[in-house]
Amino acid sequence: MKLTIKTAGKPAKCDLLVYLVPEGGDPDVPASVDVPEEFLRKFDAKPRARRSTFALAGAAREVMLIGLGKLADLDAEAVRRAAAIAVKEAEARGAKSVHVDVPGLVAEALSAKKSDGAEIAGRAACEGALMAAYRYVSSKSAPDKAALGQITLAGPGKAFARGAEIGEALSAANAFTRDLQNGAGNVITPTALAKEAQKLAKKSPRVTAKVLDEATMRRMGMGLLLGVSQGSTEPAKLIHLVYKPKGPAKRRVALVGKGLTFDAGGYSLKGSAKMDEMRFDMSGGAAVLGAMHALTALDVPFEVHGVVPSSENLIDGNATKPGDVHTGMSGTTVEILNTDAEGRLILADALTYVAQKVKPDVVVDLATLTGAVIVGLGHEVSGMFTASDELRDALLDAGRASGEEVWPLPLLEAHREAMKGRSADLANIGPPSLGAGPSQGAAFLSHFVGDGCDWAHLDIAGTAWNTRDRDWVGGATGTGVGARLLVHYLLGLR
Description:
By secondary structure, the protein is an alpha/beta fold. It is built from 14 helices and 20 strands. Strands 7, 8, 9, 10, 11, 14, 15, 16 and 18 form a nine-stranded mixed β-sheet that branches. Helix 4 packs antiparallel against helix 8. It is elongated and about 80 Å long.
C-alpha cells in the first residue's frame, strides 16, 4: 500500500475522494471537482453517516461525505473510524486510489482538548486508514490481490503530516502484531517468535535482542515457565528486546507479554470447541513485540525492555499434573491446582527476571489471562490492575488516545492472601469462594513483581480477538490490541 501525506488543497486524481464532515460544517469540495448541486445540501453529518455520488467532472470518479458528529464531542476515535470507513468504502467499490481530506475544523476541535489537534488528527486518520486496509493472507496459497493500492491523506499543515508519520509507524506495529496472532499454531511457535524478535533488532541500531533457551532458563531456576513447557516438544524461549534512546534515558520501562503460542490447557484440558483459537493465547507477547516494532521507527526518551516468555501448554507423559509443585526463579514454590492457569506461571518467571536483571522504574504486563474478564468487561475494554494512581491515569489516557480502552479493576490484599498455597508457598488458582478470576490472576502475579517499581497488569483476553467490527479492527481474527496502547503510553510519558 502506497501512502501519501499532503497539505489540504487541490486533490490529486483518484477513484474515490472523501471529505470528513463535522455537524454544522460545510463540505469543502473544491471547484475543480464538479458534483450534483443537491449532493452538498443538508448532509446529516452524524458519526459514521455517509453520502456518495459520481462526480460530473474533475479529478475524482466518485465523491463521498463521511460524518464526524458534533465538534464538541469530537475525539481521535471519531477521526480514526471515519478514515477507516473511507478505506473500506474504497475497497468495496474496487477503487485503486482514495483521497481523504481532513478539514482544519477537526484540528481546531481536537486542539481544544489537547495541545496540537492537527497532529492528533493526522495520527488518527493514518491509523484508521491503514489498519482498515489490513488483510491476513500469509496462509493462502494464492491470495486475491487487493485493488486499492494508493491512500492519500490531506490535512492542515506540517503538524498533520508529523502526526500521520507517527500513525504510520503505529499502524505497521498493529499489522505486525496481528500477523503474529493470526499465524497458525504450527507456524508461530516459540522459536518462530524468537526469530521475529531477532529480525526486529536488525531494523534499528537502537534495538538489541537476546533469546534465552531452556538450558539457560534451567540454570536460572525458571521452573514455572519450564513446568508449563515440559509437555511440549517445542522448546520454550524467553525473548528480551532492548530499545535505547538517542540521549540519556529518563526512565527504564519494561513491557512483558504472555507468549503462549498454543494452549490446550494441559491435563486440565480445554473443550474441543474453539480450541483452534488458542493460537491467540500469545497475544500479549505479540503486543510487546509490536510495540518494539514501532520503536524501530519512533523515538522515545526512555530505555524500553520488551520481555516475552514463550511456550506451548500441551499434554504428554512429561506434562505437569494437577497437584505438582514447581519452583520459580524467585525461589517461590507454586502448587499447580489447574494446569490451564498457565499464563500466570510463565509471566511469574518473566516478571522475576525483569525485577532481577532489568530493575525497571515501570513494568506493564499484558496477557490473555482469564475468561472471567470477558464476563465483566466484554470484548470492548481490557481489564487493568495498577499499583499507583499515576500509572492508572496514564494508561487510561493511552487507552482513550489509541481507541484501545482499559478499565481499572480491584486488587485487594484479600486477593493476594487467597493465593497462598497448602502444599507450597502459592497456588496458581484461588478458592472458589473468592471468585473474581481476573483479580486472582493479578494477585498471583503481584507476588513476583519485586520492590521499587510501579506495575500494571492488563488482561486482554476479551479484546485480543473475536471483537465487533469497529471499522479499523474487529472480527474473528486478531485485533493487535496492546501494541499501539503501549506506544501511546510511552509517547505520553514524561
